[in-house]
Amino acid sequence: MNQREEIQISVAFDWQEDFKEFLKTKGITASSIKDYQQDLKHFAAWFVKVNGEAFEPSLITGVDLRSYRSQALDDHVAPATFNRRRASLRRLCAWAMASGFLTYDPTQGIDPIAQAELPARWLTGQEYHRLMRQVELMINGARSDHARWQAIRDQAIVVLMLHAGLREGEVCQLDWADVAISERKGKVTIHRGKGEKRREIPLNREVRMAIQLWRRTMNNETGAMFTGKGGERIGAKLVQNRVRALRVAAGLDDQVTPHALRHTFAKRLLDGGAPLTVVSKLLGHSRLETTARYVQPGWEDFEKAVERL
User: Fold this and answer.
1) Domain range annotation of the chain
2) CB 90 within 8 A of CB 107
3) Is the pLDDT reported for residue 6 higher than 60?
4) Contacts within 8 Å (CB) and 24+ apart, 94-97
5) Options 167, 208, 242, 268, the catalytic residue
6) Is residue 268 annotated as part of the catalytic site, yes or no?
7) Catalytic one among 262, 263, 267, 268?
8) How does strand 186-190 pair with strand 199-202?
9) Is 294 a catalytic residue?
10) For this structure, is 262 an active site residue?
11) From CA 262, how far away is CA 228, in angstroms rounded?
12) DSSP H stretches of helix in 52-78
């Protein structure tokens, strides 16, 4: 992008504050607002390059958006990426109409790019073994008090996703009061899961042992269950980073994410014979169709089928 284009885009985003306020009134989070801005900056750069004029919301036309979609297809942009940008543009156009910049919705008739639904990603038996082995190696190989503290915390986080199916955000919001553990049983209560749903999940021996070790390490049973080195409650970014560090150390691919750990919990339950209704309740799903994804063949099943040819 040349200097002239950079100036044009900068000027074009003078209206950003009003749009940000509009998004806030819709309950959009600060991190999501940043995502919207990045998507719109991408479109603005494309607009300047194609039309040779500064981008303004009032100048968006259906012709522009159809060309933008066509360019995405030509450039082999991932469907999920284009569809997210399309959603951002739909928000922008809704604001522009409400603000009087547009008299009609130019996004009408601009279809999303279809994508094949991929199977849910879960860990294979070998991947599970390698990840859990790496978790334990991090504890045993710690060379400082802080490294051991972090490794024990990470173990508790990982097993809560792998053996209790918690989402990364649910892990972050846990307080010590949400966990009840005795010698032979335990449970964790999620007070505000997705859709504000409350649920209780039994904790198996693996999770109970990891939490008890973390409890002894923390020497604290009040407030946030998981904290950073400064004592503040952890966020989703930290969970993602720690899972990334563990998967890299274990030599696993980049599809081993916090959500893949939750998927693994569901898949292992179903493979063990648990009814779909039970798994659905444990995961906090509103619809059985959502849980049914885990009884579909996964990538490992596809690979085995092709190898048998």
Assistant:
1) 3-98, 125-307
2) yes
3) no
4) 95/18, 95/19, 95/22, 95/23, 95/57, 96/57, 96/58, 96/60
5) 167
6) no
7) 262
8) antiparallel
9) yes
10) yes
11) 22
12) 62-74
Q: How many CB atoms lie within 10 A of CB 46?
A: 17
Which of 6-20, 66-80, 104-118 has the lowest average pLDDT? Answer: 6-20
Report the 3 state secondary structure along 213-231: HHHHHHCCCCCECCECCCC
CATH number of the structural domain 125-307: 1.10.443.10
Give yes or no: 24 in active site. Answer: no
The pLDDT tens digits of the residues spanning 166-217 come to: 999 999 999 999 999 987 899 999 988 877 789 999 999 999 999 999 999 9
User: What do you get for the CA distance between the two ends of the chain, in Å?
Assistant: 49
Residues 121-178 have pLDDT tens digits of: 889 999 999 999 999 999 999 999 999 999 999 999 999 999 999 999 999 999 999 9
H-type helices in 165-202, by residue range?
168-172
Pick the catalytic residue from 69, 85, 130, 294.
Answer: 294
Cα distances from 8 to residues 56, 91, 134, 215, 304, in angstroms, run 10, 22, 50, 55, 53
Residues near 87 by beta carbon (within 8 Å), at least 6 away in sequence:
none
Q: Which amino acid is at 48?
A: V
Catalytic residue among 194, 198, 237, 304: 194
Asked about 167 being catalytic, the answer comes back as yes
The answer, yes or no, to whether residue 297 has pLDDT greater than 70, is no
Active-site residue among 41, 66, 233, 259? 259
The verdict on whether 20 is a catalytic residue reads: no
Query: How confident is residue 298, by pLDDT bands cut at 50, 70 and 90?
Result: low
- In this structure, what token pair is assigned to residue 24? 């806030």
Position with higher pLDDT, 16 vs 106:
106
The one-letter amino acid at 55? F
Determine the length of the chain. Answer: 309
Positive or negative: CA dihedral 222, 226, 230, 235: negative
Helix intervals (H) in 13-61 = 16-25, 30-51
Distance, C-alpha 160 to centroid of its chain? 16
